[in-house]
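Design request, tokens follow.
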């Protein structure tokens, strides 16, 4: 009987190797480790063994049961692993190369706009945005732009008629961010019409002009407008603020100069140049050998414009400025053609990390 038991033990180990699934494994367990299995039965037949041999035989049966239990656990784990591997292989080929994650980037214009705005934010300016679709009134009339002004030409402005409530409203796509000056002043004045608060805002946004697209002009571009209104705001504040901005933007050594100019909404008006940061003023093709780059238009807010915004020109003064982020980006990065900005060529966009 004991040889037979050893035989069953070997048979069990062999049989376990053939087990390929959970059902077979369970059948194996019942057969070789279950209550009626030869090994378990052997425990109850231990009393048939002569007394002196009992401890030795008992130990051997224990040993066989433990070996079989271990082998059973090991096989069970191996089967589970195999099953998992099979499931993974069916759903996922782990040998495929991974897909690289491509990070998004900011558009070069957005980068320049953010840089410009950050500097103004450090100087205490708030961002004020207004609509891209405007009324003629805001885009021209309230800014003191006379009816015969060439900018109002059908050739220069996108005029659109929009229908609403059974009526047709003539609107236009703003040609500059300056109408935002009126919106900002009217907003702040509405907070306290008797004694309107001082204003220090920058107004970024998209502008549109009905123009021939060339390397130097686009029908769509961004601008950043600035507006400061308060009591005793002077031209020296304008010069100081913009010169400080230019140093933070282009480098602490950069020099600026102001040239007299004309805009209907400012009086006096000026244009600010910065010393060419590509040749340090020595003269190069970018600055057309003048040593200077024209960066923005500016001036003291015209009294009529202050009045249109709800600020009494007898009590308040202000300055304003307007600049083109695409032009500044072109100068900073030697971009030769403004059409690159909206042509969405990934090769250009990729260069700005
Ligand atoms: N609106 C002008 C333009 O589009 C730019 C400009 C010039 C804005 C002078 C200003 C300013 O606020 O004071 O060309």
């Amino acid at each position: 009987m004991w040889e037979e038991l050893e035989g069953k033990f070997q048979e069990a180990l062999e049989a376990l190797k053939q087990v390929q699934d959970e059902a077979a494994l369970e059948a194996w367990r019942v057969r070789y480790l279950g209550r009626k299995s030869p090994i378990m039965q052997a425990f109850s037949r231990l009393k048939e063994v002569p007394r002196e041999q009992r401890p030795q035989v008992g130990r051997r049966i224990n040993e066989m049961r433990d070996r079989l239990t271990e082998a059973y656990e090991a096989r069970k784990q191996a089967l589970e692993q195999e099953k998992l591997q099979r499931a993974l292989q069916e759903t996922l080929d782990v040998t495929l190369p991974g897909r690289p994650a491509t990070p998004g980037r900011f558009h070069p214009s957005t980068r320049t706009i953010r840089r410009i705005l950050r500097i103004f934010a450090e100087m205490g300016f708030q961002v004020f945005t207004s609509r891209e679709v405007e009324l003629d009134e805001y885009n021209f009339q309230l800014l003191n732009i006379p009816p015969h002004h060439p900018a109002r030409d059908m050739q220069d402005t996108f005029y659109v008629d929009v229908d609403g409530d059974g009526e047709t409203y003539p609107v236009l796509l703003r040609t500059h961010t300056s109408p935002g000056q009126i919106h900002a002043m009217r907003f702040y004045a509405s907070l306290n019409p008797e004694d309107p608060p001082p204003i220090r805002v920058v107004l970024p946004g998209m502008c549109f002009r009905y123009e021939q697209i060339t390397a130097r002009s686009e029908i769509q571009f961004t601008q950043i407008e600035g507006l400061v209104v308060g009591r005793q705001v002077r031209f020296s504040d304008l010069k100081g603020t913009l010169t400080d901005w230019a140093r933070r933007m282009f480098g602490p050594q950069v020099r600026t100069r102001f040239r007299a100019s004309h805009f209907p909404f400012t009086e006096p008006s000026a244009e600010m140049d910065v010393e060419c940061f590509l040749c340090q003023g020595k003269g190069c093709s970018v600055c057309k050998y003048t040593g200077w780059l024209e960066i923005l238009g500016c001036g003291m807010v015209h009294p009529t414009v202050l009045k249109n915004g709800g600020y009494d020109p007898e009590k308040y003064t202000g300055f304003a400025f307007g600049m083109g982020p695409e032009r500044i980006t072109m100068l900073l990065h030697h971009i030769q053609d403004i059409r690159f900005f909206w042509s969405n060529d990934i090769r250009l966009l990729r260069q700005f990390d």
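Comment from the thread starter after seeing the answer: thanks! Residues 2-89 form one domain.
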